[in-house]
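pasting Amino acid ABC transporter substrate-binding protein for the record, 248 residues
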Amino acid sequence: MVSKLGRWSAVALGWMLVALAVAQERVAVDAQNAPFMYADGERAAGVYPALLQAGFHHIGVAVRIEALPWSRALAGLDQAELGVGGIYKNSERVQKYDYSAPIFVEKLVLYVRRDKRLVFTGMQDLAGLRIGVIRGWSYGDAFDLARRAGRVETEEVASDAQNFSKLESKRLDAIVAVEQAGTAQLASGHYPSVIALQTPLAVNPTHLAFHKSADKRALLARFDSAIEAMRRSGEHDRLVGRALLKQP
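structre below
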């Protein structure tokens, strides 16, 4: 026979497990943006999962980080089902989302074929070109506005590798990629005709964001304090360096 004390202990344990499940935050990252965030089997890997996991650990909050297609991650963010890490701010998004302080800064680089003598000084230099981008991404207000106004023609794919392949085979005039991700693609040796332009398209801080209706401002403030402490201690740089070395 189970004692009354034993039954109460089992009930208490059950409620504790429910409370832990409820308390766990759910954060999504892009599944195809190595080395910053990507799916490694069943787990999320890369720079942002490492920084997010450490930041939440520092503030004592359980977190489940999922690598999802970017469009699905953004849909979950719009429905307040989850947070998203590694996301840019733009004028449209700040109306909907609450943001952390920057967790990293990405340099967006234009890549062209060696035989394409493109000099980039501003958006006007991209007029009439077919530019490869990642589906669902923002590239900063200036580029996004030029796209919406039809001054820049873009073609969307799911990954950097697809864009580099299309550029190598002359199906695009230029592509945009985050510098470290582009460097990794060039290092593969599969794209001998492709080079990086020296002038960046944009330099964009990245953040953790939640939908405003989720009311996570207090959590984001605690997370900001943790990231700042990690920067001061050197842990931030160590995690970034380790994640970049492990890129697929």
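The chain has a mean pLDDT of 90.
The two ends are 55 Å apart (CA to CA).
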